[in-house]
Each structure stands twice: as structure tokens, then as C-alpha cells.
Hints:
Blueprint: E1 2-3, E2 6-7, H1 11-44, H2 57-85, H3 89-106, H4 119-139, H5 150-166, H6 172-200, H7 204-234, H8 237-263, H9 269-306, H10 314-339, E3 343-353, H11 356-363, H12 365-385, E4 389-394, E5 397-402, H13 405-421, E6 426-438, E7 441-443, H14 445-455, E8 462-465, H15 466-472, E9 479-486, E10 493-499
Parallel strand pairs: 6-8
Antiparallel strand pairs: 1-2, 3-5, 3-6, 4-5, 6-7, 8-10, 9-10
Helix pairs in contact: 1-3, 1-4, 2-3, 2-8, 3-4, 3-8, 4-5, 4-6, 5-6, 7-8, 9-10, 11-12, 12-13
Amino acid sequence: MAVGTVATLHGGRLVLARLAYVVVLLLAIATFLHAVPHWVDGTLLKPPRASGDRPPATLVGIDIAAALAVPLASAAVAAVILRYRSRDWFGLLASAEAVLFGCAIAGPWSSVSLADSWSLPTRAAIKLALIAIVAVLYTFPNGRFVPSWTRWLLVVFAAWTVAGVVLTAVDPVVARGVWQLVLLAFLFSGLGAQAYRLNSVSSPTERRQTKWIFYGLTLIVAAYALWSFVEFGTHNQVFATLADILVQLASIVSALLFGIAMIRFRLYDIDLVVNRTILYGSATVLLVIAFAGLSAVSKRIIEAATGHSSDIMTIPLIVAAAVAFGPLQRRIRPVVDRLLPPRALLTLFFTDICDSTARAVTMGDERWREALTTYRATVRRGLRRFKGSEMDTAGDGFFAVFDRPGNGLHSAQWLRDRLRELRLDSRFGLHLGECELRGEKVSGVAVIVAARVMATAGPNEIVVSQIVHESLGNPDGAFRDLGERALKGLPGTWRLYGSSPGQVPDERS
Length: 509
């Protein structure tokens, strides 16, 4: 069995991999907990650079809380990855990397001095964190080194980090500068490897996984760049503390995005997230600008009329802005959707009643209306049961979408049995493809393909396209090959598969 394209471990290899995982985990946790008290004391007692430059105690407390929240969030992500990927080496590496990343980015590790008895294990944990981050950049998302020679770059980087732990008798200023340059070079080589993989060898699902990672990295880089500018450009500790809080929050979001990419949870949503961020962000900015302008104008008018300044118009302007948000968002949405239509990799589900016209004539209007009511209620119950979303209904036909092919197929299986008991023989079609999401509508060629796939099915038959079949596998002969079929209005032929009444196969992780 495989997890995606990563072979699972068995026997002694699995035991050794999990043992190494536990050792790294204990090292990270122990050294981090040791460093926290020293770091908190140093942060609270940090002297100001200039008079009046010390940030408020409340702000410092928020900064400390945000920093300590990073390893907690990363540990939660690591636990989720471990839950789903505990039997393959890359899942174990990614889970360990999440923990190490959270400990490294938070700050406490850096507070341990060389004179501290925990200095060596702490520095070893820091180096392991860096090695894990670079290793993930070279191997994400399927555990393979792409290009293959990056494995040797990782060996060189690991040797360099080990040397940095062992050799301490070096000019600290020079050593730090050289180390930072080398680290940046290896991190950029990892990003280059991801860019090469994205453009050359990644599957559609892997591309979406990489998108989540790149958005997370972009957040961290942007937040860190802002912090660097404030810290070294302005020398203002209040602003530096605020910027540090942003870095910690960006790190939490980045860890969450990494977890989503690893377990392939609703990968398609990244385009939707970007689209909606632009939509709501632009609407908010326009309202803020309008509010500021109208507020300034109203104050001037009141001052000119009464000779006194007043904020009396602020409350109605706030209410007006809140009321206007919805209509403004609806006006902006078509523009944003046109400029940046979000795309989704969805399982498309179609079903209808076989020979519905003849059945309606035979049953008569009243009985047919009652049958349709029962049919629609049953279908909607089946969609909800397996986390499907109803997109459209026309007569006795339903169009729905699912996040995963397995959920769509299980829904079809469940509905086939229930509708057959109601003597409402139905047919089902499933296809997996990229679609455009415009508002609440799903469109694209893949939707047409799914409808045509359903049209080839007979009574109580579930027909799936080849891509769905490949995604689900075919254990115990659950599918039979229907051969190449021409689909109305679509070029070429399409290989289709029919699901027999037996057990529905589980979707691969």
C-alpha cells in the first residue's frame, strides 16, 4: 500500500523510524522547556534603547503569548499529520519538522548561552530543525528528491550544520554572518527545487499542495521583512514588538497551511481563500476610505454651522458602513471573480431517475409529485450524510460536489440502495476535475464531462471516469471496465468504469 506516492514502512524500518521520531521530539520539547524561563526573563527585562522606547507591559505580554502559541499550534499540526501519515517516512519527517519549526521560530532556543549546561543539546535541536526544514523543501510533497541531486545538497548542508555545533572557537561576528549567508543559500535552493518540481513533475494535486506551502512561506517572508525593517531601520522597540507579534501570527498560519497541504484537506480552497481575501479586503478598504472622507466632511460642516467640533455623525456613518458592506461586496464580487476566478479540484456528482418521463405518465401528477418529494428528500439526506454540497436541481436531476471521490462514491452507493427500495431506479455519474467557482456556482468542462458520464449509466448503475477510478483503486473487483466511450459533444473517447453492487473501495490517502 502507498500513501499518495510514498511507500509505507513495515516491520523493523517502521520501528526505527518511529524511534528516531520520538528521540527528536523529546530533544525538542526538553530543550525548549528549559529555554522558556530564561527567554521570558530576558524579554521582560530587556533594556530600552532610548528613553520612552520601552513597549507597554501588556504589549510585551501579548508578544510572549504569541511566541509561545507558535510551538503549540505547530505541535497540533504535527499531531494531525502523525494521525494520518504515521506509517510513511515522509509523514514522520513532516510531523517532526512541524514541531522543530515551531520551537525554532518562537525564540526561546536563542536565549540559551554557551555557558549553559543545556547549550549543546539546544544547539543540536536548532540544527536538526534547520536540517528538517531544508529536507522538507527538497522532498515535499511526495518524499522524493527533485531534482535527484538535491539529496547531496542536503548531505552537504547537514555536514555544515554539524560542523557549526562542534566548532565554536570562531569569531562570533564573522561566524554568524557566514552562517546566515550559507543558510539563506540553502533555503533559496530549496525554494528553487520546489519551483522546478512545480513546473516540471508535479501532478495537479501536488501543485495545489505546493500552492499552500508557498502562500505560507510568503506570509513568513513578508512578516520577517517587516520586522527586519522596523528592528534595524527604526530602532523603535514598540514597533519592533508589534512586528514580532505579526511574525509569530504568520508562523502559526504557515504551520496550519503546511498541515493542510500534508493531509490534502480541501486543497482547492486556496484559490477561493485568495479570491475571498481580495474581495472582502477591497470592500473593507473602500468603506474605510468612504467613512474617513465622510467623517471629515461632516465634522467640517458641523464646525462651520455651530462653531464647535462634534463626533455626532460618527455613529450613523458606522451604521451606514455596516449596512453598505453587503451590497458593496456583491458589486465587487463579479469583478474579482472575473480577474481571479478561483479554481477547484472537485468530485462532480450527477444523478437522476431512469425513465422519469414514462414513470410520470404512468403514475399521474399527484403520485409523481409525492414520489419526487420523497426522492429529493432522500437524495439531500444522502448528500449531507457524506459531506456533499448540492449545486443545482432540475426536475428529478441533482448536481452536487464532494471534496473527495470516496465520499461521492459512498453517497452514490448509499442512495442507490435507498432509492431502489423506494422503487425509484436511478443512475449516477462521477468525475474528478478542475472547475471555476463564481460565487456559489461551479462551472467548466469537467461539469459537462460528469453529466455525460452519468448519461451512460443504466438503472441502479454508478459510472465513474478513469481519473476517479485511478484515485479510488479497484480492490476486490469493485469496478468493471466499460471500455472506451464517446461522450456527447466531447472530443475523443473516454474510458469509463461501472461500480458493481459490492463493497465501495476506500479512497487512497
